[in-house]
Amino acid sequence: MEIFITNDDGYKAKGIRVLAEIMSAYGNVTVIAPKSHQSGMSMAVNLGGTVMEYRKIGNEEAQTSAGSWSWLDASPTSCAKFALNLLHADKHFDVVLSGINHGSNASTASLYSGTLGAAEEGALHGIPSIGISLDSLDPDADFSSAEQYLPMVFEKIMNELPQRKGLYYNINFPALPADKVKGVRIAQMGNGKWIREFRHLSGDIDESSWVMVGEYVDSPDNPPDADHILLEQGYITIVAHHLDNTDAEESERLRGKGFDIDF
């Protein structure tokens, strides 16, 4: 199996090293990760005349013997494009994996996630793609739950792939040691929003400095199988996403209202 891995925390993050080590049991691992932290980039790409420095690094610098490693000074999606469109355009990758992210990408965090953005790029290429996250921002987080259970989840997904293209999967692991995880659940993407997102550092309103932080507020209409709710209860969650964002129900409603018009 040919396996491509990237992330949005940068090539030095513990999570991507853990992922490469897990996946090395399944085949040849190729890693091209951002040079630096790229969270919140979604599917952003480095367009125009942006210069992107690329460097192949040895396993000693990557701090693992698993895989062939490089970094690109670019977004996660650009890293995936660089691999799939240019550097390894003649290679057929069997799967694209992004992660393991330090921090949850459940609920509406998935809309902003650079981790999921790279998985979307893999899906655009028709390759089975999975974004993987751990609900902990600790740089030295306990990844034992992923180490123990990701192989099982990965194998089940790959063995049950549908013929339909455009799918990608969002897997979130709770911040628990492996022996405390309750199980695995197929979930819906939860709903919520961030408030008080900007913190003022200095200056007046017209010329000032800010940082983006924020507080997550849950939506009151979340179903019990919302991914962030199940994640908090100690379950590994899997949400199936699709590149096609069309709302079929609303499209049919609009047709029924006479929006299809011939001129």
What top-tier CATH class fits best?
Answer: Alpha Beta
Number of H/I helices? 8
Major sheet characteristics: 9 strands, mixed
The proportion of strand residues reads: 25-35%
Structural class: alpha/beta
Overall structural domain count: 1
Helix-strand string: EHEEHEHEHHEHEEEEEEHEH
Quickly give the CATH architecture. 3-Layer(aba) Sandwich
Molecular shape = globular
Query: Mean pLDDT across all residues, rounded?
Result: 96
Topology-level CATH name: Stationary-phase Survival Protein Sure Homolog, Chain: A
Structure overview:
Strands 3-4-2-1-5-6-7-13-8 form a nine-stranded mixed β-sheet, with helices on both faces. It has a two-stranded antiparallel sheet with strand order 9-12. A two-stranded antiparallel ribbon has the order 10-11. Helix content is 27%, strand content 28%. The chain has 263 residues and is of the alpha/beta class. The radius of gyration is 19 Å and the shape is globular. It is built from eight helices and 13 strands. The N and C termini lie far apart (53 Å).
